[in-house]
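Dear Dr. V.,

Thank you for agreeing to look over these. As mentioned in my earlier message, I'm a first-year student in the group and I'm still getting used to reading structure tokens, so any feedback on how I've presented them would be very welcome. I ran two proteins. I've put each sequence directly above its structure. The first is here:
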Amino acid sequence: MKKINGLLTALAVLFILAGCGPRTYVSKDESYDISKVRNYTWVRAQRDSLGSQRSGRANDLVKNTIKTSFDRNFAATGWRQVRPAVADVYVVYDMNVQRENVNVSDPVYSTPMTRWYYSPYRRGYVPIYYPSTLLGYNNSVQTVNEGTITLTIIDAKTDKTIWQGSATSEINGRRMSDAEIDDHVKAIIKKLV
């Protein structure tokens, strides 16, 4: 019995943790076989969302963290970074942190209660339990920070976008931490493989 309870508890924890990861979205060209790709190279985006005059050094650290995380995860899937002349695909990423208004709906329940009634059949008081019932919902709007990392893969021969994946989740601060970046990258690469 203890083993079954332990197994059920472990399964419940896994389901809860599975729902905590970033939401991942993928768009791909169905005619292209991405499993044949073995080499990649980084290219610069036309619009760099991290570039700013004020905090260039901090943004360089974030850029390096993102690239390092992608490189590590690409290497785990068997992809190698090569020179642009011999690459199968070009890869580019984009990162965006923005404030979002989220509608939150919390259920409101009545208070459960127990009443005691005199029962002539039992010749004493008998409890009757009234469970809580759903009264409605409290609706509110909360402002949260959402971080999104998008990876775009472009065919080196045709310059067409063949795969694009993004991961979005609520983040704790105004900037994504290294752990949050790594979680987003892993979620994107998981959809790629």
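The second protein is here, in the same arrangement:
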Amino acid sequence: MTARLATTTVAFALLVLCMPATAKKYQPEVVVSDPYVELHTGPGRGFPIFYVAAQGDRITILKEHTDWYKIRTPRRKEGWVHVSQMASTLDLDGESIEFPRYDVDDFAHRRWQFGVGGGDFDGARVISATGSFALTPNIRTELVGSQLLGDYSDGYMGTLSLVMSPFPNWRLSPSFGIGTGVVHIEPQTTIVQSQDRTDEIVHASVGLDFYISDRFIFNVIYKRHTVLTSRDDNEEIDEWTAGFSVFL
């Protein structure tokens, strides 16, 4: 139970620490420098424009959602402004402000990526924490630590993979990988006592990375593992996982 709780806590902490700074609550004030900025009723161009803030107005930023900022005008009007217009505002000292903008191009050229996920490992539940580093836009190394929670046995697994993304600039980007690692199985107490096992493991994988917005990605991965046992026959195991990750 302690191992399960520790794994879940570490995974959650990893995701929180990797969240971009823009996700933190803040309410800075900026000054409109363009002739006007348009306020929409919601965070999207499909929402109607209901008000404009004029040049020289001092507006307060309330929150951010993808490429949209919710702002409040001096007349207490609240609405959503696109980042392209926010980029033209000035701080209270009259200096220009850089508003971070992330798009598919940033997704394609990401370097570090961290995430958490869960799924199925040959009938057992699996919780994973992943970290990867891109050597090129098409090739990255990936380190995964997993906790295995079965009905009759628990365990953990660590793998190192080389992953190729042939189309990194696609919003829905497929990937293919190969890797190796170690899996350790601890049988739960039964009438017939079994020994713990530690075996080398190799795998091939197919995955899909869906770029949501900002720095967030949704991942789905299938891995076909071969457990290299000390017995005469090896074991073939299927693993399916899904989760979320962020890139830096």
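From my reading of the second output: The first helix runs from residue 2 to 17. Residues 1-26 have pLDDT under 50 and may be disordered. Does that match how you would interpret it?

Kind regards,
E.
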